[in-house]
Amino acid sequence: MSLRLRASLAVEIHAELCRAYPEEGCGVLVGRDLGGAREVERAIPFENRREDSRHNRYLIAPEQFLAAEKEARAAGLDVVGFFHSHPDHPARPSAFDLENAWPFYSYLIVSVERGRAADSRSWRLAEDRSAFEPETLEILPEADPLARVPSPARGGVDGR
User: Residues 12, 16, 23, 24: which is the catalytic one?
Assistant: First the structure.
């Protein structure tokens, strides 16, 4: 099990969660489920709709989630998970996170310490819903935009 995202997307998520500090920031991960691995193509940040305890709780409202699902479908993708921050706390799921988690999804948690992203970890809910299981988080290098551009001088795609 792994969650894969490009470095620029990780930077974007971290920036969004740092902006929310000292409250929890949150959003939805959109991409593809490839069996054991998930590839994130987009991160959709949302305003934390929680009205109380925003420093250690977040809420993605139903209409926010539906909008993310609609955007994902329009792009031929799926909602594959959620991201949120833990201000001045470790990037480990809390008891509250466990109580409110849904099966299938990946949960990317970012520890934001004094306004700066310190650690990122991904988790999946166990099938029996008793605990979270760690998921490998892979930060991928950016794709080379020229890698697939035909080069007349070199003869075709990728220089072949």
Answer: 24
